[in-house]
């Protein structure tokens, strides 16, 4: 029988943490999907639940473990994007991470309050991910077609094909092992340690902590496989002797954001567009409906931001651009998709199956009243309030679309030079030019008038 000193590190990890973690840590990374020869040649993306508890921003009470979606450049090991949320993985978190991955990050770091440089931007050539349904949806497929990105899925059961992102997730979790509120890697590691009692960081504070670690520690430290820091490998791959050059920056940031929102296909009806029992309408829809034989034969692409579903975005088949379509009833209050789902769940619990728009907003109003009048705030309520606050914050971080000025296409008139006009001043009059008048002749003569009696 082998003693503890005779076991290899891989065998020790397998016995302590399981076969999967040992395989992810010690087995060589399979490169069947291709070799990354330059920055952004291959980017891997994946989700994981962080091993730390967070508290809400008001009462500082524990609300659970957040999720993180991370994208990494395989060539340099630079992290290209990172999105943290209390919500489970979804197409929304994939879109937020990809949008952040492609765009510049200076403004994002300023909003979070992190000092440092994160000089990563640009469209990836290949996007590599697992077979999760949030990756295989229509949103990722249409994004890849529109932005010329090659999508590759690793086969089921071959986690080592995504070894770069798996090891990065392990690195981030190791960093969090020393943070108050950590859950470590399982119950065996924490023994009598209660992470909920020791949790101290809010989601915002955890986000700032991780972003600072990525920008100022992980990117700057020597990587064991690269034998240099990721930032040095990235810069050499772009600006070195065999560098590929700086990647192009996305100019139409609004289109990129909309292309990465969850989508559905709908036909325009007389009452507009209906999505999850809510009606949307605008004048442009009526024009498409009038010409339905030409433009409304097939279902059209419609997108929405889960953080605010008061407006959806229709890809106009004529304009070849997205147009906003608001609530048909514009007096409705803006709500998030999660609030919408909670309202529907409340109706279902009451045995109401025939759901319509009015019932949804009535149930939503009752839910809000319950939260406001609740004497004891439960963990789930605190978590939902924190989710709502974060969704509004995440929505505000999306780059605003620059206003485009319409150029005047009329040709400017040519100004012709006009010769100066010579003005002649008349000579002063002579004395002979004046006429003498007799003052008596100028005195008016009155005739007497007889009054008739």
UniProtKB/TrEMBL annotation:
Region Disordered, annotated ranges: 1-25, 373-453
InterPro entries hit by this protein: Integrase_cat-core, RNaseH-like_sf, RNaseH_sf, Transposase-like_Mu_C
A molecular function GO annotation: nucleic acid binding
Biased composition (Basic and acidic residues): 404-415
Basic residues: bias regions: 379-392
Pfam families named in the record: Mu-transpos_C
Protein name: Mu transposase-like protein
Native organism: Aestuariispira insulae
Any GO BP annotation: DNA integration
């Amino acid at each position: 029988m082998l003693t503890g000193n005779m076991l290899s590190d891989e065998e020790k990890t397998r016995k302590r943490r399981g076969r999967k973690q040992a395989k992810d840590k010690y087995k060589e990374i399979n490169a069947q999907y291709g070799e990354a020869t330059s920055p952004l040649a291959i980017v891997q993306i994946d989700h994981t639940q962080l091993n730390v508890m967070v508290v809400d921003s008001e009462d500082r009470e524990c609300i659970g473990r957040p999720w993180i979606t991370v994208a990494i450049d395989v060539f340099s090991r630079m992290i290209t994007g990172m999105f943290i949320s209390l919500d489970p993985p979804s197409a929304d978190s994939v879109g937020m991470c990809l949008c952040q991955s492609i765009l510049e990050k200076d403004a994002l770091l300023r909003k979070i309050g992190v000092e440092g440089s994160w000089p990563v931007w640009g469209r990836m050539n290949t996007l590599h991910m697992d077979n999760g349904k949030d990756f295989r949806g229509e949103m990722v497929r249409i994004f890849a077609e529109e932005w010329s990105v090659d999508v590759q899925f690793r086969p089921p059961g071959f986690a080592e094909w995504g070894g770069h992102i798996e090891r990065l997730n392990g690195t981030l979790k190791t960093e969090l092992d020393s943070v108050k509120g950590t859950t470590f890697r399982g119950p065996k590691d924490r023994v009598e340690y209660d992470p909920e009692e020791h949790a101290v960081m809010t989601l915002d504070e955890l986000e700032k902590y991780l972003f600072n670690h990525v920008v100022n520690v992980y990117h700057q430290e020597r990587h064991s496989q690269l034998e240099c820091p990721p930032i040095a490998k990235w810069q050499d791959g772009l600006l070195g002797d065999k560098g590929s050059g700086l990647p192009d920056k996305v100019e139409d940031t609004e289109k990129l954001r909309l292309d990465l929102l969850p989508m559905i296909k709908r036909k325009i009806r007389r009452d507009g567009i209906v999505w999850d029992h809510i009606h949307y309408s605008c004048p442009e829809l009526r024009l498409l409906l009038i010409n339905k034989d030409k433009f409304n034969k097939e279902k059209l692409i419609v997108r929405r931001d889960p953080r605010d579903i008061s407006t959806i975005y229709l890809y106009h088949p004529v304009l070849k651009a997205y147009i906003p379509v608001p609530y048909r009833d514009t007096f409705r209050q803006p709500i998030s998709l999660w609030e919408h789902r909670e309202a529907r769940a409340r109706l279902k619990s009451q045995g109401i199956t025939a759901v319509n728009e009015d019932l949804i907003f009535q149930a939503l109003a009752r839910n809000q009243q319950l939260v406001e009048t609740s004497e004891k705030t439960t963990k789930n309520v605190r978590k939902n309030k924190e989710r709502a606050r974060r969704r509004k914050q995440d929505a505000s971080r999306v780059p605003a679309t620059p206003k485009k000025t319409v150029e005047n296409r009329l040709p400017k008139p040519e100004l012709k030079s006009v010769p100066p006009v010579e003005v002649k001043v008349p000579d002063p009059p002579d004395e002979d030019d004046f006429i003498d008048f007799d003052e008596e002749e100028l005195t008016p003569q009155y005739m007497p008038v007889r009054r008739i009696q």
